[in-house]
Amino acid sequence: MEISCIVIDDEPHAVSELTDLIGMVPGIYLLNSFENVKDAVSYLSSHKTVDVIFSDIEMPTLNGISAAKILHQYCDYLIYVTAHRNFALDAFDENAAGYLLKPISQHTMVNQVMKLREHLKKRVNSQTEGMVFIKGGNKNTFIKLEWDKVIYVKALLNYVNIHTSKGDEVTYIGLKLLAELIKKQDHFFRISKSVIVNLNYIERVEGNMVRLMNDNTFTIGDKYRNAFHEFLRKRTLRP
Questions:
Q1: Which long-range contacts link 93-101 to residues 24+ away (Cβ below 8 Å)?
Q2: In CATH, what class is 131-234?
Q3: 56 contacts 33 by C-beta, under 8 angstroms
Q4: Using an 8 Å Cβ cutoff, are 56 and 11 in contact?
Q5: Residue-wise pLDDT tens digits, 2-55
Q6: Is cis: bond before 103, omega within 30 of 0?
Q7: Residue 34, number of CB atoms within 10 A of its CB
Q8: Of 25, 61, 20, 11, which Cα lies nearest the Cα of 41?
Q9: Which helix (H) or strand (E) is 92 found in, with range?
Q10: What is the DSSP letter of 128?
Q11: Which DSSP state fits 200?
Q12: Do the first three CATH levels of 3-128 and 131-234 match, i.e. the same topology?
């Protein structure tokens, strides 16, 4: 995962030094550099957001601290690069992700980039934990599954029907493989050889029958009854 960035600094030599430094550090690339916030925001608003903005603080017209709320709209991380120590508290009050003192060493930049990469990786993982793409029934068709919207999964002959709150989806990957994907989600339970249910959609259990909120009813298989009833017992309120 490469990190995109821009640089804002009114001193050309500072821009040149930071540009060279970014070019030497793996995992990060520079999109553009600007002498003031106005030009940077104009570029970002008509082009794209970036992962990181490296901004100087003391600049004419609009300084980096005053521009923080504007800059945060166009980046995930705002990092200040300055020759002055006395702005640190102000910077972190504006949710700065870093405060680098000039001159910046390559070691410092590498450490900063590694921290950002790790944070971005965790964020991406957390965003994708609740979903997965699976192969659909037709060639070159892929289905996005949001786990919290899956009500139940049922194997039918050589395909699997996935019933979601948005409708039914069909995949030929097989229930065994789907069960491997689902087992990381703690709100699913396999109740028979062919059915996996989302516990969040269970309305009631009557003997060996499970009724879901969409009025679908399934029989708990012999092989799965003890585990399922033990699961219920541990979560049943008692007088």
A1: 94/65, 94/68, 94/69, 95/68, 96/68, 97/52, 100/54
A2: mainly beta
A3: no
A4: yes
A5: 788 999 999 999 999 999 999 999 889 999 999 999 999 999 887 777 889 999
A6: yes
A7: 20
A8: 61
A9: helix 88-93
A10: H
A11: G
A12: no
Domain boundaries, the chain: 3-128, 131-234
Within 10 angstroms of residue 176's Cβ, the number of other Cβ atoms is 9
Q: 153-162 contacts: CB < 8 A, separation 24 or more?
A: 153/178, 153/182, 153/195, 153/196, 153/197, 154/194, 154/195, 154/196, 155/193, 155/194, 155/195, 156/194
| Residue 164 φ/ψ, nearest 5 degrees | -120, 170
Identify the bridge partners of residue 210 per DSSP, sorted by sequence position.
Answer: 205, 218
CA distance 205 to 232: 9
> DSSP H helical segments within 94-187, as ranges?
106-128, 175-182
C-alpha dist (Å) from residue 64 to 7, 56, 130, 133, 212: 11, 6, 37, 41, 55
CB within 8 A of 69, min separation 6: which ones? Answer: 94
- Give dist(CA 179, CA 189) in Å, integer: 9
Q: Which superfamily, per CATH, for 3-128?
A: Response regulator (3.40.50.2300)
Question: What is the DSSP pairing of strand 209-212 with strand 159-164?
Answer: unpaired
176-202 residue pLDDT tens:
777 777 766 778 899 998 999 999 999
Q: How far, CA to CA in Å, does 216 sit from each of 17, 106, 205, 220?
A: 65, 61, 12, 13
